[in-house]
Amino acid sequence: MILFHRIIPIFSTLAILILWESALVYDARYPIFFGVIMTCVFLSLAQLFHWNILSRQFIGFIVTPFLLTLGIGSFLLFLEDAWLRQLVIGLHVVSLGLFLESCFAYLHDPKGYQPYALQNVTGYMHLITLWSVLSSSYAVVLYFQMSAWIVVVPLIFFVLVILLTTLWMNKIAIRKNILFLGVNLLLFVQFFLAMQYLPLSWLVNGLVLVGVYYIVFNISRYHLMHSLNARVLHRYVFFGVTLIFGVLLTARWL
């Protein structure tokens, strides 16, 4: 049985890659392929958990890959460049493969599990998820000429789930940090609404906002874990600011 579990990450990611490519070729059946991909994600993780799908642990683990797949699925609807579509699919497949591999090690091979592997992988998956969802939200506002406030409410719920999942993964008490959640959501809404007025494409807007999230949330997370120091602060500020300025300097301004 452990051998069967061992090959799940490999075969699942390969199957999902084939399904994504098929969805791009047969775009008229995109919803069907997307539904099958979501099913594959669920079945893969359910098998690793021995089908204990009602357990709190399974529910906590399934949220991240589900949100990522939903984000990528909506993102691909707005992308026109073939290379960018392949990049997004590659990010989904690789990150999902690493996640399933970490889940296998955590559940079935504790000696081979690298400490904090799941926390690190889910952190990167959340960044990809936010980029895809935020960019898609800006695209909806742009293409359908609607108010940004209309998409703010579902976005708040989406980001809240990501924040709660991150706190849970890092074993941070949620009830004691309601203020933290409120402040981060308020900052997110303010930045999201402000970014729409910049003369940038919807792709760039989403990426810049991800950079802001990367700085603010990670610093807050380490503060809640009582692990914030000058080295951690400088690291996240440096990489976050570098990402933001790199995107802005290379972006096509309208």
From TrEMBL:
The keyword Transmembrane applies. It comes from the Bacteria. This is Uncharacterized protein. Keywords: Membrane, Transmembrane, Transmembrane helix. The keyword Nucleotide-binding does not apply. The chain crosses the membrane at residues 7-26, 32-51, 58-78, 84-107, 127-144, 150-169, 178-198, 204-224, 236-253.
